[in-house]
Description:
The protein is of the alpha+beta class. It has two domains: 7-174 and 353-369, Aminotransferase class 4, branched-chain amino acid transferase, N-terminal domain (D-amino Acid Aminotransferase, Chain A, domain 1), CATH 3.30.470.10; 180-329, D-amino Acid Aminotransferase, Chain A, domain 2 (Alpha-Beta Barrel), CATH 3.20.10. The chain has nine helices and 18 strands.
Amino acid sequence: xxxxPIEFCPIRPERRRAPLTDTSxxxxxxxxxxxxxxxxxxxxxxxxxxxxxxLRTLQIDPAAIxxxxxxxxxxxxxxxxxxxxxxxxxxxxxxxxRFTNSARRLNMEPVPAELFTRAIRALVLSxxxxxxxxxxxxxxxxxxxxxxxxxxGVRAGSEYLFFVLxxxxxxxxxxxxxxxxxxxxxxxxxAVRGGLGEAKTAANYAHGLRAQRRAALQGFAQVLWLDAxxxxxxxxxxxxxxxxxxxxxxxxxPLNGTILPGITRDSVLALTRAWGLxxxxxxxxxxxxxxxxxxxxxxxxFGTGTAAVISPVGKLSHRGVEHVINGGQSGPLSLRLFDHLxxxxxxxxxxxxxxxxxVDTRDFKAExxx
Length: 370
Ligand code: COI
């Protein structure tokens, strides 16, 4: 089938804004570039009306299925500015794969891989002036799929809107790369096997907000979820996967259907294995983590995520007892991973694993023409 064309409707010159590049003012998820991508799906027409147009509010029917029954999935990826002004994308293929899996899990119409990749590349090119340059900053890209048909009976949508936002971001946590404090959640659980845990769907985040609020009121950046059955095994943090260094070995919970298959998680596993570390993807009980913290065998903990990158964990609190990790400082592995990934994503070190794609401005016409 011929790829559908992507139309480009540029913003009027007088409405164009000066791109924000000062990282100290960026924060995360507050600022958006001038344009966004959108395409429609209906069971009669298939995918149509793919276009990049000035960012504007959406018109949506109050009976839209996504608003009532939660058919809403998303992705998060970043475009980076290289030393010579190039634009780079990191592991776009993994985002396509996860977005497709999330769509299937929520019984939604998957976005064809070629439409997804062309949309992202074209948007990165049209918004390239918005890619910030400071260390720790990037252009965050948020592909989203929602069911839009107006119907209050419970069924899957037959009409969908696929849209992609872009906006310059600094570090996800206000602490930047400095260690965050995490509260082990003992009341709510995030996911059960066979549920939605491995899908990147809005429901998973709505569900975590109550625990996140309780944690924030006590001064914690996020919660660490435990498994839903035994309430013992570590799963993930609200916005990132989690890693521990115990006795010099790296441990992270396995992908067993309840946790998000993080792209940074996967990258950290591949890099640390290539660096010769002993790495385990295995169930790890919270007691094992806390005992190791008490005895000094837990030397480092960090979270991984596209938004969070590598976020060292300086403190874990469980049932009122605080466990400080590595004296509350970032550990050497977190620092090495953060530095290596940041330089890789900016095209500054050899890309031996073929993860980094240079998005060439000369391709803009090709992406737009389809
Ligand atoms: C990401 O890391 O891209 C995420 O989607 C996490 C969060 C901001 C929802």
